[in-house]
Amino acid sequence: MATAEQLKALLHSYATADEDRFLSVALQIASGAARSGKQRLGDELRDLVDQAKRHRAAARQPVVAAVPLVRSPGELAGLVAASCPQVRLSDMVLAPTTHSRLERVVREYRQTAVLDAHGLQPRRKLLLVGPPGSGKTMTATALAGELGLPLLQVQLHGLITKFMGETAAKLHVVFQAMQTTRGVYLFDEFDAIGATRGADNDIGEVRRILNSFLQFLEQDSSDSLLVAATNLSGMLDSALMRRFDDVIQYDLPDAAMIKQLVRNRLALFDTTGLRWGPVTAAAGGLSHAEVVRGCEDAAKDAVLDGRQRIMLAMLVRALSERRSARSPLGSGQEGWATDAGARTPED
Ligand SMILES: Nc1ncnc2c1ncn2[C@@H]1O[C@H](COP(=O)(O)OP(=O)(O)O)[C@@H](O)[C@H]1O
Ligand SMILES: [Mg+2]
């Protein structure tokens, strides 16, 4: 049954209106009940948590639906993909420093008026740098979720190939939209233009696009949040980085983060008997996204075998398969430091 610590955490999260924490403690209690043989109670508690989450998601809907752009993209059609995310930062597994920097962005943005009264500006222009699958796109999604803003996703590669010759004009349309429609604007695959200063990419057109982007970025004084994300760290020069209010680094997950990712993804399954040593060893060097997918593979196997329980061997195999499933041409993660596999895994 619930421990004294869990009851305290439950009351504390109620008192501070921290819904995410409340539900996560409730889930822990459900898992605890299942582990101690009270499977039925565990299931009932989980159902109640799911129900609460669905109600919460439904209650959040109208706020987002009131944003006109999501209903009719108009001029932005074909340039951006609009959505109304429900993801929160607490759904993410992040290094503590990354987490606190993102919390700071949310805090400043929420207090824009207070800062403004003192002649100060919130952080609004962010550059996220890290290996594929480390949660950069998810971060933009979670920021939108936290702030109740729509997410407008700009795929730069697509924009450049589709509108060759008029890319800068199209970018201008996006920056204008930032003024009229408040939202989180994600410029994904920023390396498509951001890495141009290297000799290889010194193509006239791409360079012009970068220059336009930097000019728009500098001029932008909208209320929107601009997030640029890139997998390449070395190729972005410091002059470019200076134009952003914050540059936030992402890394591959370490053993503790792997454990948290597995726990979160398999929260609705029975994980009694899982030993963390072999799990974190098998997942060492994988990205967050790969760990999550490995867990999903193991969960599917369990479901199709008619089991609620995740077997250690299956999870280890699924994670190992994720590694070998990488493209022989490389995962794009070469050069990203990982110490996950090197650590002494906690058991
Ligand atoms: N830090 C993280 N915490 C939790 N899940 C993550 C994290 N990073 C990635 N994931 C999982 O992997 C998926 C893909 O991640 P994504 O944000 O697209 O990575 P990136 O943009 O860095 O390549 C996410 O939708 C999520 O399921
Ligand atoms: Mg991404």
Instruction: Domain count, please report it.
Output: 3
Bound molecules: adenosine-5'-diphosphate, magnesium ion
Largest sheet: 6 strands, mixed
What is the CATH level 1 assignment of the largest domain? Alpha Beta
List keywords for this structure.
single chain; 347 residues; alpha/beta; Rossmann fold; 16 helices; 54% helix; disordered C terminus
Description:
The structure is a single chain. This protein has 347 residues and is an alpha/beta fold. It has 3 domains: 1-61; 67-249, P-loop containing nucleotide triphosphate hydrolases (Rossmann fold, 3-Layer(aba) Sandwich); 252-347, Orthogonal Bundle (Helicase, Ruva Protein, domain 3), CATH 1.10.8.60. It is 54% helix and 8% strand. It has 16 helices and 6 strands. The protein has helices spanning 4-15, 19-35, 39-65, 68-71, 96-110, 112-117, 136-147, 156-162, 167-180, 191-194, 204-219, 238-242, 255-265, 276-283, 288-304, 312-324, and strands at residues 80-83, 125-129, 151-155, 184-188, 225-230, 246-249. It has a 6-stranded mixed beta sheet. Helix 2 runs antiparallel to helix 3, helix 9 (167-180) packs parallel to helix 11 (204-219) and helix 14 packs parallel to helix 16. The chain is globular, with a radius of gyration of 22 Å. The model is unreliable at 61-72 and 337-347 (pLDDT under 50). The protein binds adenosine-5'-diphosphate and magnesium ion. Magnesium ion is lined by residues 136-137, 188, 229.
